[in-house]
Design a protein that fits this description.
With 365 residues, the chain is α/β, with parallel strands linked by helices. The protein contains 13 helices and 13 strands. It has two domains: 177 residues, Nucleotidyltransferase, domain 5 (2-Layer Sandwich), CATH 3.30.420; 172 residues, Nucleotidyltransferase, domain 5, CATH 3.30.420. Helix 1 crosses helix 2, helix 6 packs antiparallel against helix 10 and helix 8 crosses helix 10. Bound molecules: adenosine-5'-triphosphate and the ligand CC(=O)N[C@H]1[C@@H]2OC[C@@H](O2)[C@@H](O)[C@@H]1O[C@H](C)C(=O)O. Adenosine-5'-triphosphate binds next to helix 6. InterPro entries: Anhydro_N_Ac-Mur_kinase, ATPase_NBD.
């Protein structure tokens, strides 16, 4: 009988939970996927906890971790229903939790999740806290997906790049010789969604249609691109700690008010240009770019990326058989398997850790 793993991911976009059930590697197949939006109150609380300086943060963080575990358990139950599999057939679930702080330079990264409660509710071994060991070993603790990207999308003899467009964008650079690098390029949906919520009252700009009707503001774009993070060499990672609404507002305040739709177009251009700059600088021989994460459904983003990378085959990961919104959760199922088999989950060349480390902490069913 094939061993099964589940992966549960709620990323920096805060849009909800992605869950997958997969067969063990090597060459395992995806059996089921389920996406569940976060309950509105939990979404708002997690967003508030991302901002530094809130009142009574400790108790509120514990409450949010508890509520997120319940949401994860509900999502996992629906996933198993869809697949027609009982909990006992799943060897372990890799559960990411919700990043609310990411400060590897200060020696910590915080993913909220009451993993004990998830193990209690779900009846499956839970592997959680997947980033802190890499940070303890001097690494960024992120990105962790490049090893999985390499296993799924790497091609002998070709320089391939995989771009995840989540709240933050991260690139995996899969060289023809098998060497893997990866880093966060900067903001993606975190700022786009903030602007869509503020001016459209919608969680995101569907298919990038609103952005497509705006005019990029060159002065504002240049000011946004002055952010020193973009010039840092890898290893590097970032988060909502840096790219938050106040960061954007401070730069907007330097200019006469622009039409909100033009700001949206400019934010989209920021994501596209920072990805393209990073790719040109770090992996100029890339011939194939595969895009995953919810941003792969933003047609304006995809069109702008392809236009800015002539000669590169730019498509979403479904071209290689994996739907864009399945990739991250699958990576955490893959990391759960690595933990169970006590294999390292990090790539020191990506995160800058002092060496390969087994990632995660076990909460037995
Ligand atoms: N049809 C669409 N048009 C435009 N944007 C979309 C569409 N569908 C999804 N998105 C974007 O994708 C986001 C969700 O992406 P995803 O689930 O990859 O993020 P995440 O897992 O939170 O991110 P991260 O990789 O940072 O952890 C939404 O918040 C939205 O911005
Ligand atoms: C600290 C943290 O949660 N980082 C996330 C975030 O979302 C995208 C980008 O920033 C990436 O570095 C990472 O997620 C993916 C899954 C990773 O670790 O590879």
């Amino acid at each position: 009988m094939t061993t099964l793993y589940a992966g549960l991911m709620s990323g920096t976009s805060l849009d909800g939970i992605d869950a997958v059930l997969v067969e063990a590697e090597p060459a395992g197949q995806l059996l089921a996927h389920h996406h569940q939006p976060l309950p509105a109150a939990l979404h708002d609380e997690l967003l508030a906890l991302n901002a530094v300086g809130g009142v009574d943060e400790l108790a509120r963080a514990a409450g949010a971790a508890r509520d997120l575990a319940d949401a994860y358990a509900g999502c996992l139950a629906t996933l198993l229903d869809k697949a027609g599999e009982p909990a006992r057939s799943v060897r372990a679930v890799g559960a990411h939790g919700q990043t609310v702080r990411h400060c590897p330079a200060e020696g910590y990264t915080i993913q909220l999740l009451d993993a004990a409660r998830l193990a209690e509710r779900g009846g499956i071994d839970v592997v959680a806290d997947l980033r802190s060991r890499d940070v303890a070993a001097g690494g960024q603790g992120a990105p962790l997906v490049p090893a999985f990207h390499a296993a799924r999308f790497g091609r002998a003899g070709a320089d391939v790049a995989v771009l995840n467009l989540g709240g933050i964008a991260n690139l995996s650079l899969l060289a023809a010789d098998g060497h893997v690098r990866g880093f966060d390029t900067g903001p993606a949906n975190a700022l786009l969604d903030h602007w869509a919520q503020r001016h459209l009252g919608q969680p995101y700009d569907a298919d990038g249609r609103w952005a497509a009707g705006g005019q990029v503001q060159p002065g504002l774009l240049a000011a946004l691109r002055e952010e020193p993070y973009f010039q840092l060499p890898p290893p590097k990672s970032t988060g909502r700690d840096l790219f938050e609404p106040g960061w954007l507002q401070a730069r907007l305040d330097r200019f006469p008010p622009a039409a909100p739709q033009d700001v949206m177009a400019t934010l989209l251009a920021l994501t596209v240009s920072t990805v393209i700059d990073a790719l040109r600088l770090q992996a100029p021989n890339t011939t194939r770019l595969r895009v995953c994460g919810g941003g792969a459904f933003n047609a304006s983003l995809m069109t702008a990326l392809a236009a800015g990378l002539p000669g590169v085959d730019v498509q979403d990961t479904s071209a290689d058989g994996v739907a864009p919104d399945h990739v991250e959760a699958w990576a955490f199922a893959w990391l759960a398997q690595a933990f169970v088999e006590r294999r390292p989950g990090n790539l020191p060349a990506v995160t800058g850790a002092n060496g390969p480390r087994v990632l995660g902490a076990l909460y037995p069913a």
